[in-house]
Amino acid sequence: GYLLPGQTVRVEIEGLGVLSNPVAEEPENLAYY
Predict the structure, then answer these.
(1) Nearest of 9, 21, 13 to residue 29 by alpha carbon
(2) What is the pLDDT of residues 1-33, one digit of tens each?
(3) What pLDDT shows up at residue 2?
(4) SS3 sequence of the chain
(5) How many angstroms separate the CA atoms of 15 and 21, rounded?
(6) pTM beyond cutoff 0.85
(7) Which residues touch 7 (CB under 8 Å, ≥6 apart)?
(8) How many CB atoms within 10 Å of residue 11?
(9) Phi first, then psi: what are they for 17, rounded to 5°?
(10) Which of 9, 12, 24, 33 is deepest in the core (most CB within 10 A)?
(11) How far from the centroid of its chain's Cα atoms is residue 26's Cα?
(12) Phi and psi of 7, rounded to 5°?
């Protein structure tokens, strides 16, 4: 797992799951991706 279950899905969809950036921890930052 990278982050939270819900966030992991969002990140993987955008192809950022591999990076697992700390920024992804914040929902607001996920919106930008």
Answers:
(1) 21
(2) 455 666 666 655 565 555 555 555 555 655 554
(3) 56
(4) CCCCHHHHHHHHHCCCCCCCCHHHHCHHHHHHC
(5) 12
(6) no
(7) 24, 25, 27, 30
(8) 21
(9) -60, -35
(10) 24
(11) 8
(12) -70, -35
**Distance between terminal CA atoms of the chain?**
19
Q: For residues 29 and 23, is the Cβ–Cβ distance under 8 A?
A: yes
Structure tokens, 26: 């914040």
* CA–CA dist 29, 7 (Å, integer): 11
The structure tokens listed for 29 are 């930052």
**What is the CA angle 18-24-30, rounded to 5?**
110
Type of residue found at 19: L
